[in-house]
Specification:
alpha/beta; Rossmann fold; eight-stranded mixed β-sheet; about 15% strand; globular; single chain
Length: about 290
C-alpha cells in the first residue's frame, strides 16, 4: 500500500487483514511498526523473522522515503530527522495514536529520532544492532568491554574490500557493492551462523544511489545529548559477535536511556533475529506484553 506523506510516497505493508481496506484501522492486537536498516534497504529482509510475531501483534512494515518500494526523492531529503517525521505521519495516517517501533541498525537510528521528535507516537522502542552513533566513543566505564573487529576474522584482499566500502569517498559501482555484500556479508553473522546470510541477501532490496547516500549519512548520525531525555520504554538487543555495531555501543546507548532493558545475544552477530530467533521472540513478547498499557 502507498501513502502520500509530507513530500514523499511511502510504501507500507501490514501483516493482518484488519487493515486491508483501511475502513477501520483499529485492532485488538498491539501494533509494531518495523523499520529496516542497512544502507537504505527495503523491509523485505525482516519479514522471514518478524512475520512470525504476527499471531500476537499486528506488524506494519514501512519502506522509508526513496528506499525499497517507496517513491524516489531528492537524496538531500533522505535524512534521519526527515525519515522520523515520515514515520510519525504514517502512524497518524493509519489512525493510530502510538505504536511499538522496531528498528534494526540504521532503522534504529530513525526509531531513536522518532522517540526524540515525536515521543507521543512511540509506545515502546525495540532496537537491534544500535548505538548513539559511530562518532560516540567508549569511555572509561567501557574499558575491557568486548569489542569485535572484522580484522580479527578476515585478512588480505577481503579486508581491503571492506575498507573500500567503508572509507572510499567516491560512489561505488553496483558491481563493487555486490562484491562487498556477497563476500563480506556472511561475516556480519556470528562465526557459526555465516551460512545463514544468504537468506538475508536474497531479500535485500536496494537502490545504488541510496546505498551510496547512506555510506555518507550513517557515520554522522548521533543521538547523544537528546536520547537521555526520552522516557519511552526501550528494549535494546545486541549480538556479541557484531563488529558493524558492536555491543559496547548498544551498552552505552542503554545506559543513557531512562527505562531500558539491554540484552546481549552471545551466539549472534548483526542479525540476531535470524541467528537466535527463539530468544529474540521471547524478548520481544516479554517487552511488549509488559508495556502494553504504557
Amino acid at each position: 500500500m502507498l501513502a502520500q506523506l509530507n513530500d514523499a510516497t511511502l510504501f507500507f505493508d501490514v501483516v493482518d487483514t484488519e487493515f486491508e481496506n483501511m475502513d477501520d484501522p483499529s485492532t485488538n492486537k498491539p501494533v509494531m511498526l518495523a523499520l529496516s536498516g542497512g544502507y537504505g534497504y527495503g523491509h523485505a529482509y525482516l519479514r522471514p523473522s518478524l512475520d512470525n510475531l504476527s499471531s500476537d501483534y499486528q506488524i506494519i512494515y514501512a519502506d522509508m522515503r526513496g528506499q525499497g518500494r517507496s517513491s524516489d526523492v531528492p537524496m538531500s531529503t533522505i535524512q534521519f530527522d526527515t525519515m522520523a517525521d515520515d514515520v510519525a505521519a504514517l502512524i497518524t495516517y493509519l489512525g493510530l495514536e502510538s505504536v511499538f517501533v522496531f528498528g534494526h541498525a540504521s532503522g534504529s537510528f530513525i526509531a531513536q529520532k522518532l522517540a526524540i521528535r515525536h515521543p507521543g507516537k512511540v509506545k515502546g522502542l525495540i532496537l537491534v544492532s544500535s548505538s548513539m552513533g559511530m562518532t560516540v566513543l567508549p569511555g572509561k566505564d567501557e574499558e575491557g568491554y568486548p569489542t569485535p573487529f572484522l580484522k580479527d576474522r578476515v585478512q588480505g584482499e577481503l579486508l581491503d574490500v571492506a575498507h573500500n566500502f567503508f572509507f572510499n569517498p567516491n560512489p561505488l559501482s553496483e558491481a563493487t557493492f555486490v562484491d562487498y555484500a556477497t563476500r563480506v556479508g556472511p561475516y556480519y553473522m556470528a562465526p557459526k551462523n555465516m551460512d545463514r546470510f544468504d537468506s538475508i541477501w536474497m531479500n535485500v532490496h536496494y537502490k545504488m544511489n541510496v546505498v551510496n547516500h547512506f555510506r555518507s549519512l550513517n557515520p554522522f548520525f548521533t543521538s547523544l545529548g537528546k536520547i537521555s531525555l526520552v522516557k519511552t520504554p526501550a528494549l535494546i538487543m545486541s549480538g556479541f559477535h557484531d563488529w558493524a555495531t558492536p555491543s559496547v555501543g548498544s551498552h552505552m546507548l542503554a545506559k543513557k536511556m531512562q527505562h531500558c532493558d539491554f540484552v546481549v545475544f552471545n551466539d549472534s552477530g548483526h542479525f540476531l533475529f535470524i541467528e537466535e530467533p527463539d530468544r529474540f521472540y521471547d524478548q520481544v513478547k516479554g517487552f511488549i506484553n509488559k508495556n502494553i498499557q504504557v
